[in-house]
Amino acid sequence: MQRGSPGFTVAEFGEASADHQLQDAIGKDLQRAEQLSLPITFVILLIAFGAFVAAGLPVLLAFSAVLASIGLNALTSHVWHSADAASSVILLIGMAVGVDYSLFYVKREREERRRGLDPEQALVRAAATSGMAVLVSGATVLIAMAGMLMSGSAIFTSLGIASMVVVVSAMVGSLTVLPALLGKLGDRLDRGVLGVIAAMLHRILRVVGIRSRLLASARDRRTVLQRLKGDAGRSRIWDAILRPVLAHPWVAAGAATWVLVVLSLPVLGLHTKLPGLADLPRSIPVVSTYSKIEQAFPGSQVPAVVVVKAPDVRAPQVQSAIADLHRRAVATQLMQEPVTVAVNPAHTIARVEIPLRGNGGDAESVRALQALRTSVVPATIGRLPNAEHAVTGQTAGDADFNTTMKHRFPYVFAFVLGLAFLLLLVTFRSIVVPLTAIALNLLSVAAAYGVLVLVFQQGHLEGLLGFHSNGSIAT
C-alpha cells in the first residue's frame, strides 16, 4: 500500500499493534541482556579471581537462580498480576545478588585456605561467617523489596514479588548448593584455564595408559603466582585507594558526602509517570507512527476518557448530558476536538474521549484534567440520576499514580527503614552501625535518583544513550 501511494504515509497503529511490538522488543532486549551479562560478568570475575573455576561458579549459580525465579514468577502470576518488566528485573537483580552472595563464600574460602587451613576447615569457617552475611544481606534486601507491596500499585507489587522470589532463590542456592560445590571442588576451585585444560588432557591420557604431569605443572605455576601476590592475597590497587582514605578519613568522608549531596539535589524536581508509548525507543515502528499522529492531532492519542454507566446511555437525558459535556470541555480551551463517543453493544456504557492540550504529561495537560474532573464532569454527567461516571486515560492514570505514591511514600519508608534498623540492631548489637548504614543508604539512593532525573527527566546524555526525554521518569 505504501509503495502504491508514495505521497502518503501509510502505517499501522492501535493498542493491539503496540502491545505486540512492545512484547517483541522486550523479548529481544531480554535475550540481548542475557547474551551480554553472562560473558561480561564472567570476564570481570576471571580478572578478579584469576581462576577459571572460581570465576564461573558465581555466574553459574546466579544464572540458575534467575532461571528458577522466572519459573516461580510464572506460577505466582496466577495469583498476583505480573508486570512486563518482571523478567528484566529478575535477570538484573538475580545476577547481582547471585554473584554477590557467591562471592562472599568463594572469597572467604580462598582467604582461609591462604591462611593455612585445610579445605574442610576453610569451608566451615567460610560458612560460619559468609553464611551469616548472606542471611543478613538477603533479609535486608527482602525487607526493601517487601516495601513495594505497600505502594498501592499493582505494578510495584508485581516487581516486589518478582524481586523477592529471585533474592530467596539466590539465598537458598548460596547457602546450600554453593558450599556443597566448594567442598566437592576442593583445590580445583583455583584452576585457571590452563589447569582445566590440563586436567582434561590428564584424564584422556590416563585412559590410554600414559602418565601426564601437566596438572602438576599447572598447580606449581598457580602456587608461584599466589606467593607473588603476597600474604592473604592483598591487592595493590585497593591498597593504593585505601591508603589516602585511611590517612585522611574526615577529608575523604566529607568529600564523598559532598558529591552525593550534590548528585541528590535534582531529586527535588522529580516527576514520575506511568510508562507509555512516548517512553519507548523510536526504533519501534508503532512509536514512530504514534509520534506522527501526535504531531498531526495533538492530544488525540492520550485523551482523557469519561466513562458513563447508565441503564440506557441512548436515553435523551444521557445524550443531552454527553453533548453538554462536549461543549463545556471544548469551551475551556484546555480540551479540543475531535471528541468521540463509543457505546457498548448493551447500550449501558458510553466512552467519551476528549483530547487534552499538552503532551499528556505536562502541566497544561494536568490543568486540563483537573478542570475536567472538578468542573466540567460534575456540571454535566455528574447531574444524571441513576448514572455512574469516572475519568480515566493516561494523564489521569499518571495523576492518580503520583497521588497514590505521595500518600503511600511515608508508610513504605517507615516500614523498610524500621525493619532494616531492627534487623541490623539485632545482628550487630550496636545502634551506631544500623544508623550509619541507613544514613549512607538513603544518601546513595537519593544520589541515584538524582542521576536518573538528570539523565532521563532533564535529558542530559540522551543523544549518547539513544532516547528522547519527555520531562518525566517512567516508573
Across the major sheet, the strand order is 3-4-2-5
Structural class: mainly alpha
Shape: elongated
CATH H level, superfamily name of the domain at 15-190: Multidrug efflux transporter AcrB transmembrane domain
Amount of helix: 55-70%
CATH topology of the domain at 15-190: Multidrug efflux transporter AcrB transmembrane fold
Order of helices and strands: HHHHHHHHHEHEHEEHEHHHE
Low-confidence blocks of residues:
208-233
Which CATH class of the domain at 15-190 is shown?
Answer: Mainly Alpha
Total DSSP helices: 15
In percent terms, what proportion of residues is strand?
A: 5-15%
Alpha carbon gap, first and last residue: 38 Å
**CATH architectural arrangement of the domain at 15-190:** Up-down Bundle
Radius of gyration: 29 Å
Kindly state the mean pLDDT as a whole number? 80
Reported for the largest beta sheet, the result is: 4 strands, antiparallel
Tally of DSSP β-strands: 6
Give me the secondary-structure topology.
Elements: H1 15-49, H2 52-76, H3 86-114, H4 119-146, H5 154-185, H6 193-207, H7 214-229, H8 236-247, H9 249-264, E1 272-273, H10 285-296, E2 304-309, H11 316-331, E3 340-343, E4 349-354, H12 363-379, E5 388-392, H13 394-428, H14 432-457, H15 462-465, E6 473-474
Parallel strand pairs: 1-6
Antiparallel strand pairs: 2-4, 2-5, 3-4
Helix pairs in contact: 1-2, 1-3, 2-3, 2-5, 3-4, 3-5, 4-5, 4-13, 6-7, 8-9, 9-14, 13-14
Describe this entry's structure for a reader.
- There is one protein chain.
- By secondary structure, the protein is mainly α.
- Among the domains are: 15-190, Multidrug efflux transporter AcrB transmembrane fold (Up-down Bundle); 303-392, Alpha-Beta Plaits.
- It is 67% helix and 5% strand.
- The strands form two sheets. A four-stranded antiparallel sheet has the order 3-4-2-5. It has a two-stranded parallel sheet with strand order 1-6.
- A hairpin with a 5-residue loop joins strand 3 and strand 4 (349-354).
- Helix 8 crosses helix 9.
- The radius of gyration is 29 Å and the shape is elongated.
- The two termini are 38 Å apart.
